[in-house]
């Protein structure tokens, strides 16, 4: 037995949370410095008349959020968050970002001393002082360093063990390497980069671009148009990071899985794309679409669009972000989907950026 045993807890058990639980539990079972049993905090609910935690622990499947995928038997569902975290040294945050504050409040002081965190959550908040990254929020609330993991990772595909890549952004190299060991598998290739801010913002903001891609599909436009939205979206993602984080973000980071690759997969296969397509076709509200199309899973791109535009407006910079501005106007200001392209032509500022 290794001198220091790490103990892992996954916080969240949705589509991606359950997949992350599957990956790390199967790795924990073979790593000799990590305790085999991995707790997964589950927001308790009834599924077909049974508690979801009971189903996961007895049937080793999450039929609501990740149906048809066998979960490892050493992944243990726990309904109480503080109990799930108790004694953990490695905390993996993976839940829809609107639920993070309540969770953090409920697990204060529950982790082991010296615990480290990683967030897989795609989103951020804006308060009176500006942008609050979720990794920063976790560090501020819980007093532990927090790395980030973002990538082209549609959960159902990763859970089926189809080869994909991801990117870990770290502040401390040793932590980056540790998280890499915990997440990497034959079908899940991990790259680690010392550029956590850009990695985290890529993961969050690509969900906004995905809405634009969905609008293209709803308008029945073709591949060239979607490719243009992806490319311009990538430029605005980089510009956003540089504008609000003092020029942060290495160009190379945008070529990691968290950058262009995640944009591509999300703009073709993600939930944000799907709901945005239906938004155009149906005229229904976002809440209705989320409830009708996602079976309890959560849409993150609309919430992130609100935060993105808040940050842009604080800086009086709508003119520098014509795509994000148009997506926000279509989502929330009653603009017609066809206005997506109205301000995209002759924008020299964007052309020169990358
Ligand atoms: N699903 C995917 O393909 C991917 C998702 N992500 C990101 O991972 C994060 C988590 O997403 P998913 O695991 O897919 O979640 P999900 O979209 O499947 O969300 C449902 C989860 O929210 C929980 N929940 C519902 N109400 C709650 C409440 N009041 N308090 C706490 N929890 C509540 C449910 O129990 C369930 O676990 C998001 O930020 C998402 O953007 C990142 C990569 C891939
Ligand atoms: O982040 C994702 C893939 O990397 C999933 O995106 P959606 O939330 O749009 O499904």
TrEMBL record:
Residues 7-174 form the Glycerol-3-phosphate dehydrogenase NAD-dependent N-terminal domain. One of its GO terms (molecular function) is NAD binding. It is an enzyme of class 1 (oxidoreductase). Residues 195-341 form the Glycerol-3-phosphate dehydrogenase NAD-dependent C-terminal domain. It comes from Thecamonas trahens ATCC 50062. GO terms for biological process: carbohydrate metabolic process; glycerol-3-phosphate catabolic process. It catalyses: sn-glycerol 3-phosphate + NAD(+) = dihydroxyacetone phosphate + NADH + H(+). This is Glycerol-3-phosphate dehydrogenase [NAD(+)]. InterPro entries: 6-PGluconate_DH-like_C_sf, 6PGD_dom2, G3P_DH_NAD-dep, G3P_DH_NAD-dep_C, G3P_DH_NAD-dep_euk, G3P_DH_NAD-dep_N, NAD(P)-bd_dom_sf. GO terms for cellular component: cytosol. Belongs to the NAD-dependent glycerol-3-phosphate dehydrogenase family. The keyword Oxidoreductase applies. It holds the Pfam family NAD_Gly3P_dh_N. The active site is at 206 (proton acceptor). NAD(+) binds at residues 12-17, 43, 99, 155, 271, 298, 300. Its EC number is 1.1.1.8. Keywords: NAD, Oxidoreductase. Substrate binds at residues 122, 271-272. It comes from the Eukaryota. NCBIfam families: glycerol3P_DH. The keyword Cell wall biogenesis/degradation does not apply.
